[in-house]
Amino acid sequence: MRSAVRITKNGLRVASMAAAGLILSGGCGREPDRRSIQVTPNGVAMLTDAQVKSAQITVEPVVERPFDERLSTSGKVTFYDLLVTHVVSPVTGRVIRIEVQPGQRVAAGEVLALLDSPDVGNAWADLLKAEADAAVAQRDLVRREELIAVGASSQKDLEAARAEAQRAEAELDRARRKARLLGATNGARRGETFALRAPIAGEIVRRNINPGTEVQGEYSGGPPAALFTVGALDPIVVLADVFEVDLARVKVGGSLSLTVPTYPGRVFEGKIDWVSDQLDPTTRTAQVRCLIPNPDRALKPEMYATVSIRVPGRPALSVPRTAVLRLGTQEVAFVEDHRAPDGRRVFERRPVEIDQDRGGEFLPVIRGLHAGDRVVSRGSILLSGMAP
User: Which of 11, 145, 250, 265 has its C-alpha lying 20 to 30 A from 374's C-alpha?
Assistant: First the structure.
């Protein structure tokens, strides 16, 4: 027999009216006596309990179910802030050599560039002077203590020597810290070369200097420029704007999906991990953030995205997807109405309108059914085959 059913792209089953010859059959292939089946011209079928059982027809009540909704908004792809850093130079100087290139992966502490900087020489000179001053102050303190012991010095002179020794020691500690920061220690004591190093592991995303470039140090008083950007692209962050009216429905942990113009058929998904407590006074929107796995590095920082956020919706009457048929241009469902005087079960074909854009096992009912109606969720295609 020709197939009388095809499946549409939205999952609805389409029954051909040419299937009028289709009759109920049992689990073992035996056909019930069709002469005992009454069918009216308006699509009402009457079956005995035995025929319903033989055809494996299932009936479910129409009830309210919660359906998620989707908020569509705009978003932007950016770095995960814990996996990116902009590298500035602590010293003023001139770039003499660049050790890495854009796209190269680096480890924490790896040298990015070498700078010729007088700040390194000054730091070394300050350290030497602080060491000498501390040694002199310590010797003077020891001498004052010896003189006090034989009564040849005053307590006031001893206190002054002790204060001077403490001051010199504090200055030496400061000089050591600065020299360590600038690399002017141990093997780096000679010369004025500063090694600019990566503070974190990652990839060289951007390089803003070339050999010979003069750079401003962050401790020189002027605004320092970022010489390198080191970061990771997996995971990556998407920031989306949510209007004030929808903000109460957006929660941390909610599902978020997005598409970007570069990959029009691809959907990226993640979970919301932060919702801003502050609104933008101009747009009246709040930002939400989502971490997106990006193992193939398809998403790039500064990409614009179309974002869809799943939020709880209002409960709505629903039917199983399998309960809805399309006969020609009409969507129908079979409703068990009542029992006939002879005890047969009456099934009425009823036009319905549903929200076909929903995914999942159940579909929201727009019109045609009411709460408590009993619809055929399995076997309705057989009933459509009997209806003229």
Answer: 11
Question: How many angstroms separate the CA atoms of 361 and 377, rounded?
Answer: 11
Closest by CA position to 24, among listed 52, 1, 2: 52
Cα–Cα dist 226/144, whole Å: 52
* Separation of alpha carbons 283 and 200, rounded Å: 36
Taking the C-alpha atoms of residue 47 and residue 1, their distance in angstroms, rounded to an integer, is 23
What CA–CA distance (Å, rounded) separates 106 from 138?
Answer: 45
6 vs 378, which has greater pLDDT? 378
Place of tokens 């409703």: 335
CA–CA distance from 99 to each of 92, 204, 244 (Å)?
18, 11, 48
CA 279 to CA 250: how far, in whole Å? 14
So where are the chain's domains?
5-65+325-386, 70-82+233-314, 84-112+197-231, 119-188
The C-alpha angle 164, 165, 167, rounded to 5 degrees, equals 65
pLDDT for res 32 = 45
Topology of domain 84-112+197-231, CATH? OB fold (Dihydrolipoamide Acetyltransferase, E2P) (2.40.50)
pTM for the model stands at 0.56
Q: Is 5 helix (H, G, I), strand (E, B) or coil?
A: strand
- Please tell me the predicted confidence (pLDDT) of residue 221: 65
Confidence of residue 8 (pLDDT cuts 50, 70, 90): low
Compute the 3-state secondary structure of the chain and give helix, strand, coil in percent, each to the nearest 5: 25, 40, 35
Has domain 119-188 been given CATH number 1.20.1070? no
CATH 2.40.30.170 fits 70-82+233-314, yes or no: yes
